[in-house]
Amino acid sequence: MKPYYRLLIFFCVTAFAGMHVGYAQVTTHITQKDLAETGQVKLYEKNGWEYQQKNGNWKRCNPLDSYDSLANEKGEVDVWLRFFFSIDSAVAKETLYLRFIYFGEAAAFMDGELMHRQDENYIMPLLDYKTVKIEALKKHCLLIHIKDRKLGFPFYQYKQDFNSSKSQTVRLVNDQYVTSLRTILDKVSFYYHLWIISLSIFSVLFGILFFVNKRNENILYITLSNGLLCACILFLFITNMTDQSFQVFLLFTYLFRLTYWFFIAILVITVFKLIGVQFNKKINMLLLIMIFAGIVQIFIDVNALSIAIISLAFLLIVYHVIRRIKYIKGAQWFVVGGLIAVVFFSIIYNVII
User: Using CA atoms, how far apart are residues 72 and 148, in angstroms rounded to an integer?
Assistant: First the structure.
């Protein structure tokens, strides 16, 4: 028997079995108003999702919840998710697309028809959506099969846990969304390239300046700060703005985190060198605590910890700048101000995230 027929039979059997579950199925109705603002309906945020493990009953769920409760003793997840919905006549007249974003092995079906299939090594395109034909005022079923497993040391997480924008998300979108997404990605890509090129030029220029004046340690630290920030932006660009497999995503995610915390540590030292702060035991201890906490955060991505560490760095810098404000002269203000601004906007970025 062909695999597609097996899946179709499975779909029919499970759909029939679901009719006997002790609660009423939820059918979400999508109107023109739902699509009007951004051209998308985030189906994964809607109520009514159900999951089914092998030979089990359908149960209510949130598709973005962790898989810990669904895993077997080996930490493996093999689950089906389904979502019932209908659309009105105005929505049905538009060109509609299904956008499914997931790292790992998965398949998506619309009313029993295979829409998308990917294996564990799937390279996720930055722009990925499938055209769908959906009849108005009719009950439709979106069925998704997910396989996942706990990753090895030191990443005791599922692929789904790493980044919500690349975890199990499914949207119904129209041409407005597709056009807007392309425009946004082009603009973001332009600014990434502008930032990377500018920092690269500054790093090279400061590097040349240090080469001809090796006695000036300040120039060395400024060069290191620029170089590390440039590497951070490059790794972030690769992580967020390129087609990639999960392995590539994971590699550059951790390269970004590692480089970022080295950058914060070097940045604090750079400012202290520029304004003439004498390193004592207290400052050295605070720097060691920040570096240790940063290393922990590389492997345990707790955003609150990131904000706390960067805020500590910011307060430390501002405190010593105020203490030594009368010793900061001329061009030093531009460098010190720029470095403080970088730390401040890092805090804002993490708060927004």
Answer: 11
Going through the chain in order, the beta strands assigned E by DSSP cover 27-30, 40-42, 50-52, 59-60, 76-87, 96-101, 105-110, 113-118, 130-132, 140-149, 169-174
How many CB atoms within 10 Å of residue 227?
Answer: 20
Distances (CA, A) of 209 to 17, 111, 256: 73, 65, 27
Cis before 154 (ω within 30) = yes
In Å, the largest CA–CA distance within the chain is 82
Nearest to 133 by CA among 113, 117, 162: 113
pLDDT tens digit sequence for 79-124? 999 999 999 999 999 999 999 888 889 999 999 999 999 998 899 8
Do the Cβ atoms of 1 and 8 come closer than 8 Å? no
Nearest to 146 by CA among 52, 254, 9: 52
**CA pseudo-torsion sign 190, 196, 197, 202:** positive
Give mean pLDDT, residues 13-39.
71
Beta-carbon neighbour count of residue 11 at 10 Å? Answer: 18
130-150 pLDDT, tens digit per residue, is: 999 999 999 999 999 999 888
CA 82 – CA 61 distance, rounded (Å):
10
Collapsing DSSP to helix, strand or coil, 313 comes out as: helix
CA gap 266, 260 in Å, rounded:
10
Specify the amino acid at residue 270: T
* Token pair 């955060």 in the structure block, residue: 297
3-state secondary structure 127-165: CCCEEECCCCCCCEEEEEEEEEECCCCCCCCCHHHCCHH
Would you say 44 and 65 are in contact if contact means Cβ atoms under 8 Å apart?
no
| Alpha carbons 206 and 338: distance in angstroms, whole number | 15
How far apart are alpha carbons 110 and 89 in whole angstroms?
A: 18
Distance, CA of 104 to CA of 120 (rounded, Å): 4
Tell me, rounded to whole angstroms, the distance of Cα 82 from its chain centroid: 24
Question: Around 353, how many Cα atoms within 13 Å sit in the side-chain half-sphere?
Answer: 16
Phi, psi of 194, rounded to the nearest 5 degrees = -60, -45
